[in-house]
Amino acid sequence: MLSSLHAFINQSLQTTWQIIAAGRYEGYEKNVFRIQGFVAGALLITIIDLAIQLLFAVNSQQSKRLATAWTTAVLAGFVYAWIVAWIDRNEKEPWHMLLVGLLWGAVVSAAIAGLLNSIAPRLIGVEPGTVAPFTEELTKGAILFLIFRYAASEFDEALDGIIYGAMVGLGFATAENASYFFRYDPALGIGQQMQTFQFTLRVVLLGLAGHATYTAITGLGFGLSRQTSRRWLQIALPILGLATAIFAHALWNSRALQVILNPAIAQLSAWDFLPRVALINGPFVIGVIIATTLSLRKEARVIATELGNELEANHPYLSPAMMLTAWGRFHARRRILWTHGVFAWWTLKQLQRAYIELAFCKWRGKNQSDIRRRIKVLRERLDF
Q: Domain range holding 368?
């Protein structure tokens, strides 16, 4: 395990330097591929290490517990990831970049932060719970900076930052949850009650209200900085977002608040933590929800304004009623699925995304020739 971590950290430092050096050249695609390759390599190392543990380093009972813990955590993580991806229903982020965020949180950030948290008591005499808000939010925020810096066309507004941040946080929470599920298993004699406690607290109560919210706040800072032309705000907003995420995380880890709100944790059920989740994390969750709602409304206004003269009023699938709202687009896809089949449904979905991309290209003053050619080809396919 230690040799794998050592190799992982060496590769992390080398690849991070390559990404930074690549910033001197034009075109972000090369840097995106490097980020993706780095995360894929880290994932491969983790899978190999996990496979070694399952096959050689642990007995059969431990292997079963480890597999069960990871399966439970991954399934829960993907359910929440689907919810986050669904929220981003207008100008959707590429799935491969969302996957990079998930894997960075689960593999890269979890490994580095876990290592730093474990050595903090020996190096600086600080408890892991005290240093964790700094190490975890900084390592999670690192991928947001890399995407922000080297994949700028995929990260250009507040909602993008919220979505990417939430994905990174969910990835981290998945790895953390797996470690807790493995640690507190009935097979260890701790009992079913503690296992249920951990699942209810970490998956049900903190599913989107924990790490996903913290890192979404960091992403919001980056996204807002992209929307301003003032240099000092471009620098200050990401720092403010990260500082707020660290503060929110530190509040949750605060032992003083823990004693005040849950004085007898050993005698409590997980649902008794609901007031603590609501009081400490609730305001930050509400803030992220408000920012998400405002961003979605802004996107809807852009789509309505820029596509108003691009659509035919009487088109059965591309009329304004069918295109200017998420529900209208869904209704059009459902309608064409029943009348013309799966291929037509898929083509219409791609055409809808192309039109929305056209709307934002017009709004940002970008070149529209490529997207208009794609729209023409897709429309020809739907010319029944």
A: 311-381
